[in-house]
Amino acid sequence: MLSIPPVDLAEIGPGTHSRARQIELLDTACARSGYAYLVGHQIPAALLAELYSTSRQFFLLPDSVKERVAQPAPDQVRGWSGSGSEGMSYSLGEESHGDLKEKMDIGPVDAPVLGEPDAGSMAYPNLWPAAPPAGFRSIWEQYYRHMQRIGGELMSLTAELFGLPADHFVRDFDTELSMLRALYYPAQAESPLPHQSRAGIHTDYGAFTVTSAESTPGGLEVLGRHGEWHEVATTPATLVVLVGDLLAEWTGDHWPATLNRTANPPRSVALDSSRLEFAFYQHPNAEVAVAPLRGADQHFSDALIAGRHLTDKYVRQTTFGRRPRR
Questions:
Q1: What is the reported pTM?
Q2: Are 99 and 86 contacting, i.e. CB atoms less than 8 angstroms apart?
Q3: CB–CB of 81/102 below 8 Å?
Q4: Which end of the chain is more exposed for a tag (fewer CB within 10 A), N or C?
Q5: Considering only CA atoms, which of 169, 251, 168, 238 is closest in space to residue 210?
Q6: Burial of 64 (0-12, 13-18, 19+ CB in 10 A)
Q7: What is the pLDDT of residue 132?
Q8: pLDDT of 31-44, one tens digit each?
């Protein structure tokens, strides 16, 4: 893989040479490797430490406690799900065993939810654990706001790359479907089944995915241009950005959607290699029709409807390819 310097969000002041340089770095990384590193993101180190600490405490609670905030339905991306409850590769129509991970999801934290005025069509309420750890909700909400800010900054850079005003995407995200997910990969006391992974091969479904993860064995891998898998080095403080389906569509596949997976740790360290990761899936308003931007390759024929695409992909992974009965 090419060694590309990270995008520095502290250097994106409007109209500066530094901003143009960061747009160039983002473009090169996303086009050639499918991911970019982000620094200068201004997330306090203390907040990151609290996010990891409180979230790990939550995942170490008994399942009977975590089930009190269980995901309500396959198409409602909120709450906790246990190990083996999803098969990410089903989103691409590929069969697999259940992924070896737990997850906890929330959506927007400062927006109306279903039943309130001006709520979006898929604005499901967040579910918050009542049991310890203390401060869980406040910490997650603070981190979500940072992710929302960073996602907006990345979309403004994208707009300018294609010759559009920096605020081009703002209205597409004013009732966004973005989600923050914590992924907990337990230590593996038993060997995985054949072709079973911590997270199976998939592309993400929205615009940018912004991740923060521990550096323990068994982590994020992306598929290279020649069919080889590359490990992506991670730390909580250095963010990794992946390209999702809708961003690939917007850019006319100038930035292809990143095929990725989460690998199992080597058996020699599997008994002591739990891993915690946070992924912010940036997703526009449900009704947004995503088609190539001005200046992008126009080879796509039909616009993707953002909410419909998200629901279709997510239901496949949570039902192992079977749509739920209504």
A1: 0.95
A2: yes
A3: yes
A4: C
A5: 238
A6: exposed
A7: 82
A8: 999 999 999 999 99
Nearest CA to 35 out of 222, 207, 179, 215 is that of: 222
At residue 281, the 3 state secondary structure works out as strand
* pLDDT of 9 higher than 60: yes
> φ, ψ for residue 291 (rounded to 5)?
-135, 160
CA 304 to chain centre: 19
| 175, burial (CB in 10 Å: exposed 0-12, middle 13-18, buried 19+) | buried
**Residue 188 contacts by C-beta under 8 Å, 6 or more apart in sequence?**
100, 264, 265, 270, 271, 273
As a whole number, mean pLDDT of residues 149-153 equals 98
Closest CA to 204 of 176, 178, 243: 243
pLDDT category of residue 300 using cuts at 50, 70 and 90: low
Q: 313: closest CA among 222, 204, 181, 221? A: 204
Instruction: Provide the pLDDT for residue 280.
Output: 98
